[in-house]
Amino acid sequence: MIPVCPTTALPPGEAIRVDADEPIAVFNVDGDFYAIDDTCTHQDASLADGWVDGCAVECPLHASCFDLRTGKVSGPPAKTPVGTHRVVVQDGTIYVQPGTAADGAA
Amino acid sequence: MSPTIAVVGASLAGLSAARALRDQSYDGRIVVIGDEVHAPYDRPPLSKGFLAGTASLEDITLGAPDDAELRLEWRLGTTAVGLDHRSRSVLLHDGSEVRADGVVLATGARARRLPGGKGLDGVHVLRSLDDAIALRVDLATAERLVVIGAGFIGAEVASTARTLGLQVTVVETQPVPLAGPLGPEMGGVCAELHADHGTRLLTGTGVAGLVGTGRVEAVDLTDGTRLPADVVVVGIGATPNTEWLADSGVALGNGVLTDARGATTIPGVVAVGDCAAAWSASHGRHVRIEHWTHALEQPAAAVATLLGTGGPAPTPVPYFWSDQYGARIQFAGSRRDGDVARVVEGSCADRSFLVAYERDGHPVAVLGMNQPRLFTRWRRQLRSAVPATS
Ligand code: FES
């Protein structure tokens, strides 16, 4: 598991990029944490730079939206989903488990 | 019999309209008519990754794995030549017709060519996949490229050609490139990218003519300069494809005229994307928008109009981007002359900045170079007076 940051450092609506083998973006949606691949499947935008809208993030470059729970993409130009990763909160710290799909992910 | 909706045009706007019809629970037939033989593909990469050879045809197709669920009837390689508004039939070049209960006009625009062009080999425009393939082949053996027009397409082609190792000269009639969309000040800043990357930019001079027999050899400028060229790319804007509607009774201007919700002057016919000029209350006239995001998003409202379920007219914030010389340029909002451009982050010299355009002290548009995170926040909040700070 990779430690990300204290829960207090990631307020609702915000995202943080975690450097792993493949970078991961961790989001806070109204107190729930989600982790997906940080790199957009269209080009190389960092999804942590995107805009969080409900349970989706809009890519900062060309506006494809990815569901934070499932990784699914809503529409062009991206065509393929992003991977999801399990998030664990322990003693006020957020951790991600790279390679382990989030519960409920497709 | 189940109803039929004909979508004329199989690029982003047409495909988005077809998807929106299903999203909005339309269950009848959808016939998509496209004059190109190719299945829908994405145009922005044609001047960038696809031209450079780093993106494949598969990379740029717009089709998605679950598109089969859309149950679309494709008529590709088929040109629409007329619309009979009494029977609401789309007439096709082979003499057949598609009778429809509703029609979506999405025929896009085509690249403008040089007036008096002599049909020389080596002279290209860039709009379609076939254009891009032909240009790519020509660039592979060329040394000197002249790009006519320093707009976004011209700049992107110049940038790609530099990465391919060509000597590139860009010619622009206006004193400052991109002054229309970005204003003279910021247009000038973006144009500095050319010099940064070894492209020669000549401004304030027009093209007197092309030189060559059979194949282009040079470009003559109005100031008397002769620029030797193996390949010439003409990037001087686009013209809406509406001639086929001349006898249809649909009102035309600079594009198919529609109200703010996409309705044309004929009931049951809506228009979307680059071919449509929609009424804009804020401009007080019809405005034709050629942005990618517009072709993606606006069809949903037009389709709702067609289905009779339309709500209030959408008021999107226009957004476009350009990738050149490794720089990400993003612009959102509506700028006009007199707006004040203010750097709110970074610096122009560093090629990393965010500029807000202000009118009466309020931000009305925003331009970012290599600032996607901040840009996204400003774009989202353009409608409120106070944007986020980080
Ligand atoms: S890089 Fe994300 S949609 Fe293009």
TrEMBL record, chain A:
Originating organism: Geodermatophilus sabuli
Lineage: Bacteria, Bacillati, Actinomycetota, Actinomycetes, Geodermatophilales
Coiled-coil regions, chain positions: none
InterPro entries per UniProt: Rieske_2Fe-2S (IPR017941), Rieske_2Fe-2S_sf (IPR036922)
Official protein name in the record: Ferredoxin subunit of nitrite reductase or a ring-hydroxylating dioxygenase
Rieske domain sequence ranges: 2-96
The keyword Glycoprotein appears for this protein: no
Molecular-function GO terms, alphabetical: 2 iron, 2 sulfur cluster binding; dioxygenase activity; metal ion binding; monooxygenase activity; oxidoreductase activity, acting on paired donors, with incorporation or reduction of molecular oxygen
Sorted UniProt keywords: 2Fe-2S, Dioxygenase, Iron, Iron-sulfur, Metal-binding, Oxidoreductase
Stored PROSITE patterns: RIESKE (PS51296)
TrEMBL record, chain B:
GO terms for MF: oxidoreductase activity, acting on NAD(P)H
Domain of life where this protein originates: Bacteria
Transmembrane segments annotated in the record for this chain: none
Residue ranges constituting the FAD/NAD(P)-binding domain according to the UniProt record: 4-298
Cofactor(s) it depends on: FAD
Keywords: FAD, Flavoprotein, Oxidoreductase
CC terms in the record's Gene Ontology section: cytoplasm
InterPro entries attached to this UniProt entry: FAD-oxidoreductase/Apoptosis, FAD/NAD-bd_sf, FAD/NAD-binding_dom, FAD/NAD-linked_Rdtase_dimer_sf, Reductase_C
Record Pfam families: Pyr_redox_2 (PF07992), Reductase_C (PF14759)
Residue ranges of domain Reductase C-terminal in the record: 319-386
Protein name (record): Reductase C-terminal
Organism: Geodermatophilus sabuli
